[in-house]
Amino acid sequence: MIEPTNGPSYDFCRIDMHAHYLPPSVKAASVPGQGHMLSSPMPSWSVEEAIKFMDRHHIHSQVLSLPVSTPDANVRDMNTYSASLVAKHPDRFGFFASLPLPDIARSVEEIGYSFDELHADGIVFSSNYGDTYLGNPVFDPVYAELDRRKAVVFVHPDTPVGFESTALGRPGPLIEFPMNTARTAVDMLFAGVFRRYPNIRFILAHAGGVLPTLAERIASLGSLPWVPNPLGLKHDEMLASLSGLFYDTAIAGTAASLWPVVEIAGPDQIVFGTDYPPASEPVIGQNIEAVAAFKGLTDQQRDAIGSNTAKLFPRLASAAR
User: Fold this and answer.
1) Residue 41 located in a structural domain
2) Fewer CB within 10 Å: C terminus or N terminus of the chain?
3) Residue 127 domain-assigned?
4) Residue 83: which domain range?
5) Are 73 and 100 in contact (CB under 8 A)?
6) 3-state class of 63 per DSSP?
7) Nearest Cα to 231, choosing from 265, 205, 195, 261?
8) How far apart are CA 314 and CA 17, in angstroms?
9) Bridge partners, 122 (sequence order)
10) Exposed / middle / buried, residue 105 (Cβ in 10 Å: 0-12, 13-18, 19+)
């Protein structure tokens, strides 16, 4: 039984699909390839603290993820640990399985194991694996398997190549993450990933970063002859592909972030996320209040954010009723 301790209750907060965790064997600063994602912003994490956080904010359950961007990570142990948490707390947790990308053969194997044996709720990708972004054809066998399974795939940003030069001494989550989310989504768009694998339900972290704001620009300029466009994608198809993605509210609940999502994708493609715990509880609380106050949605549409999230995670939706 959830006993919230503070804050108003909102229907859109029932399932939090953007929440991170740390297995006992992993220290934040040692997560391979993710020093800028987890080492400084990621505080300590425990099951007990995560549940207390959810109760304080009237959140019923979280879908946990730990994106990694190297095949050296022991993702089998990470995924098995995640599944054990779900087994102990089936009403409170789900999880996105991590993959040992860019090792394609092992990743396809891990997809099968994660869904068939561990009953994962989806898969988490990093925006890039070194200088390889998600539109690269090397990922096609992975996409084909995920498309066959009609999987939910959460795309989480990582730091771009040349980060030390572009970040100007500031941490990745400040500016580079929302830029890199757009970068990889545009790479996927022009590579035809969304066209060729229509059964994958992609969720972009942080309302897609800067992507929704740039969507019309990308579609308008992208079909001009001086922009490489080997598939000959037209303006309307580009916008249709971007409108079919899901966009979470983590650190993106204000009008500045949500208006572009509503314009490009509509309210049915918005899902709820917090980015707990890296975002910090005060920021998360402010963000939840910003979503509640956003004037671009009717009360019914705002409440439907919870329904949008629930449709992607039917097991947790059943438990949250």
Assistant:
1) yes
2) N
3) yes
4) 11-320
5) yes
6) strand
7) 195
8) 12
9) 96
10) exposed
pLDDT per position as a tens digit, 89-116: 999 999 999 999 999 999 999 999 999 9
Structure tokens given for 59: 């959140």
pLDDT-derived band at 279 (thresholds 50, 70, 90) equals very high
| Token reading at 67 | 């994106």
DSSP string, 122-179: EEEEESEETTEETTSGGGHHHHHHHHHTT-EEEEE--PPTTHHHHSTTS-TTTTHHHH
pTM: 0.93
Radius of gyration (Cα) for the chain, nearest Å? 18
- Residue (of 98, 89, 81, 97) closest to 54 by Cα position: 89
Give the CATH number of the domain where residue 79 resides: 3.20.20.140
Residue 261 burial (CB count, 10 A):
27
Q: Is 244 a domain residue?
A: yes
